[in-house]
Amino acid sequence: xxxxxxxxxxxxxxxxxxxxxxxxxxxxxxxxxxxxxxxxxxxxxxxxxxxxxxxxxxxxxxxxxxxxxxxxxxxxxxxxxxxxxxxxxxxxxxxxxxxxxxxxxxxxxxxxxxxxxxxxxxxxxxxxxxxxxxxxxxxxxxxxxxxxxxxxxxxxxxxxxxxxxxxxxxxxxxxxxxxxxxxxxxxxxxxxxxxxxxxxxxxxxxxxxxxxxxxxxxxxxxxxxxxxxxxxxx
Length: 234
Description:
single chain, alpha/beta, five-stranded parallel β-sheet, 9 strands
């Protein structure tokens, strides 16, 4: 899988060299390239933004700069998904991560200030590219780099070979059953007066599976009842 990230703060993406994602790059499973948007600016000050039409606070990122940056990277439309990070976009989900992990090439466009001129995603969508404008939650960040890091980690950990034991992905929160993951415990069996549930020490696989399912239901009902089917929530 190839991932390109365009940003005015390349150093913000340094964590991508760490842990499993860094190892996957070393092993040739991922090809991640980070690009400084200012490299496509043409003036002395490497300007990438200007005041918004219609007035208002803040600055808007220039379409001409983004157009040059994207044109220099892009190949045929069918090969690429362009992802614009924006609090005004659709909500990123595990389903998106699952789908995009199967794609061969993603380009993340990290907005700043009041965002990227709206004509940029419109132009590339009209040109036949798969374009997604995506938010990671109902809040506003200073820029799209953090959102890109979140999405890239969620996506790349699903790529073949990145996680050492693929079975560990099966029972996670937000998987196909839609529930939050059950609580996990390890040694010792008693810690500061708190006990590990007895059933987990029993060695009885069916009882353990039943307990975990019920614990998942209970946790989901407490923290995310919106994820439960109506009949369960009631």
